[in-house]
Amino acid sequence: MAGDLPDYYFRVRENGALVFRVDTENPQRRIEMDQIAVVNIRNGEIKPHGDRTLSDEDVTVIRDWMQDRQVILADREVDDILRTVDHLNLTTQWAQSRATEDQLEIVTDTLLLAMHDLRGVLVRRKAERLMKGDTAR
């Protein structure tokens, strides 16, 4: 098993990850994880842990992971939005067929405001895209 482990491990956190070098080449044959860096996906920052100096290989592996992670997060974001569309459809069906008057009283104003806000943003952004298309011609 130890031979199959990657050389690096990324403990994902909100804005990036803690980066560990994985070591199984020790007398006890234990898996040791030595933190080498902290990365921030949002600003691209890589901070060596403590007084450590990162090798070129470390930086390359970290940057590759950051690029891959950004693709994963972007894909998840779109998937989350598409799930929201599904959820809105399920909510519509619930409101039409199963919701009680008391339940509707609890959610109606909040839903209407959220949908009004979303509609306004989507319409404005669509108009901006259309205007850019007209000026490009």
In words, what does this structure look like?
- The protein is of the alpha+beta class and 137 residues long.
- The chain has 2 domains: 2-98, no CATH class; 100-137.
- It is built from 2 helices and 4 strands, in the order E-E-E-E-H-H.
- It has helices spanning 56-97, 101-136; strands spanning 8-13, 16-23, 32-40, 45-48.
- A 4-stranded antiparallel β-sheet has the order 1-2-3-4, covered by helices on one side.
- Strand 2 and strand 3 (32-40) form a beta hairpin.
- The chain is elongated, with a radius of gyration of 24 Å.
- The N and C termini lie far apart (60 Å).
- The model has no long low-confidence stretch (mean pLDDT 93).
Contiguous low-pLDDT stretches (5 residues minimum) are: none
Number of helices: 2
Strands of the largest sheet, in order across it? 1-2-3-4
Describe the largest sheet. Answer: 4 strands, antiparallel
N-to-C CA distance? 60 Å
Q: How large, in whole angstroms, is the Cα Rg?
A: 24 Å
Relative strand content: 15-25%
User: Quick one: how many beta strands?
Assistant: 4
Taken from the alpha-carbon principal axes, the silhouette is elongated
Kindly give the count of domains: 2
Indicate the mean pLDDT: 93
Order of helices and strands: EEEEHH
Percent of residues in helices comes to 55-70%
Secondary-structure-based class equals alpha+beta
